[in-house]
Hints:
Low-confidence stretches of chain A: 1-9
Largest sheet of chain A: 3 strands, antiparallel
Order of helices and strands of chain A: HEHHEEHHHHHH
CATH topology of the largest domain in chain A: Four Helix Bundle (Hemerythrin (Met), subunit A)
Number of domains of chain A: 2
Largest interface: A-B, 31 and 32 residues
Distance between the termini of chain A: 63 Å
Radius of gyration of chain A: 19 Å
Strand order of the largest sheet of chain A: 1-3-2
Helix content of chain A: over 70%
Oligomer: homodimer
Structural class of chain A: mainly alpha
Mean pLDDT of chain A: 88
Shape of chain A: globular
Strand content of chain A: under 5%
Number of helices of chain A: 9
CATH superfamily of the largest domain in chain A: GntR ligand-binding domain-like
CATH class of the largest domain in chain A: Mainly Alpha
Amino acid sequence: MEVLSPIAKPAVTSADRVLVQIQRAVVEGEIAAGSKISEPELARKFNISRAPLREALARLERCHLIERTPNAGARVVQLSYQGLIHLYQIREELEGLACRLAAEYMATEEIEQLQSLLDQHLSHQRVREGESYYQEAGDLDFHYRVILGSKNPYLINMLCDELYYLVRMYRVQMGMNGPRVSRAFDEHKAILTAIGNRDGELADLLMRRHISASRKNIEIKLAQQEK
Amino acid sequence: MEVLSPIAKPAVTSADRVLVQIQRAVVEGEIAAGSKISEPELARKFNISRAPLREALARLERCHLIERTPNAGARVVQLSYQGLIHLYQIREELEGLACRLAAEYMATEEIEQLQSLLDQHLSHQRVREGESYYQEAGDLDFHYRVILGSKNPYLINMLCDELYYLVRMYRVQMGMNGPRVSRAFDEHKAILTAIGNRDGELADLLMRRHISASRKNIEIKLAQQEK
DNA sequence: TTATAAAGTATTGTCGACAATACTGGAAAG
DNA sequence: CTTTCCAGTATTGTCGACAATACTTTATAA
Lengths: 227, 227
């Protein structure tokens, strides 16, 4: 009998291993947005053949980090105001749905664990005021768990695997840390309370507002940057 | 100067060509649901190497038609009641959103074209009463156009490229033709009217109801089949 | 000088072969 | 007889090389 970790899969294939590295590089901006991707170059850089690299690129395309045109190659996605709007329009709907489902299907135990996670975030936040990385990670962590709580595999896949790397990319490269931290925590708290009360409708509404507020926050930043 | 068709891209790569064939085979059930996929076998069948085949398989996974496990291979997805519910939960949200956006962003010309398409469908429907293929194709066509009208690339990609093949697979393999045809056409009409009036909120609501009704219709069929 | 065309270069798409991993059947131990 | 272990087989993952396509540069003509 073999004991293995509950959720995470080993990801032993070298394509997987390289994928996460390129994902990080793109999200962090080490590979510049809009730049062309050279398969031979990347293959050399990571000491692998082009076959697993192309597998990785296919998955990068899947999460909208690169765009491929047949016979012409791949480019890192170009960030834009419009793109961000389009992204958040979908997040609003899908994460709202996730909340509604989470309120119905999350185990009481899961809710309690999420509760304690939030408390933990709060103390972290007090100590490291405004440190963007923790805010960012914590925020995503909360959203992740709620999405997982929906128990809908398609929804989980779409949000966690396909959309969230792009969300992170926008946040990182446009420097979204900001003073919204404490308010975001309060909103998380309210959402979780609604879920705890099994009030899906309210949780849905609150999540939509939460994301909408987040979007408006980013819009303001963008407007400032363009001045 | 080269003249090419307005939307469709040539898809010259052999991976693309094979992809559509396998997609069709899976959707139509020629390759049975739940069955294992053998790369060497399929490669021989289509007279290509394993490289482009694997590229095609990667995209099949993307649209949820197959599931791959590292080092173990791919299986055609197993249809289930739960899976259908999960699928329609997402469709409801996303296509509702698509309607709201379409009401805002569709060109008046596009709306008129869609109007005439509906009239066309109506006459077809009168002639070929209950012929499932036309109903199916027509229905999807309407939904497609509304989704395209949203002008949101992520939304379009998710619905048209990632979810709709699976929707078709459920319809085809579970034989969803049925007596809902005329009512569906009326609902399409009402949705389009709302879009024409630029009433996004109403279009959203009507589309959600439309899909919800469609889901309930399927649920009934399923319940009958299980007897 | 600008625009067009052709040759050359580089990159992507595809192939066949090898290596690593997973599945299958049978033998040995309990 | 059941279970566990092991060897054999088949399948997937990876590699390097070749073919097909796209991009670049140079030369030619208007």
